[in-house]
């Protein structure tokens, strides 16, 4: 899942080397924390959050095979 998130985000940003994805696991949930360069934040979020919503949709769809709930936070 981490690789999927990086693959989606890298073409969107100017500083792909600053992309970091960390994982926080809890009882029945897995949260992926996406961190990008502050100059790329607008590109990842998009107008009215459309790009962020699309990224979350793909990640959630890919995670349906798991028994846990998937979340994506963008920092």
Automatic annotation (TrEMBL):
Keywords linked to the UniProt accession: Cell shape, Cell wall biogenesis/degradation, Chaperone, Cytoplasm, RNA-binding
- Highest taxon in the source lineage: Bacteria
The regions listed as transmembrane in this protein's record are none
Identify the species of origin: Cytobacillus kochii
The annotated subunit structure for this chain is: Forms a complex with KhpB.
Q: Which family does it belong to?
A: Belongs to the KhpA RNA-binding protein family.
Please name the InterPro entries in this protein's record.
KH_dom-like_a/b (IPR015946), KH_sf_prok-type (IPR009019), KhpA (IPR020627)
Any one of the GO BP annotations? peptidoglycan biosynthetic process
- UniProt-recorded name of the protein: RNA-binding protein KhpA
Cellular-component GO terms for this entry: cytoplasm
Subcellular location(s) of the protein: Cytoplasm
Per its database record, what is this protein's job? A probable RNA chaperone. Forms a complex with KhpB which binds to cellular RNA and controls its expression. Plays a role in peptidoglycan (PG) homeostasis and cell length regulation.
The molecular function terms in GO held by this entry are: RNA binding
């Amino acid at each position: 899942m981490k690789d999927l998130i990086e693959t989606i985000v890298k073409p969107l940003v100017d500083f792909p080397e600053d992309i970091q994805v960390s994982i926080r696991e809890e009882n029945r949930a897995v949260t992926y924390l996406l961190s990008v360069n502050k100059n790329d934040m607008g590109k990842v979020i998009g107008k009215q959050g459309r790009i962020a919503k699309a990224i979350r949709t793909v990640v959630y769809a890919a995670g349906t095979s798991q028994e846990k709930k998937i979340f994506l936070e963008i920092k």
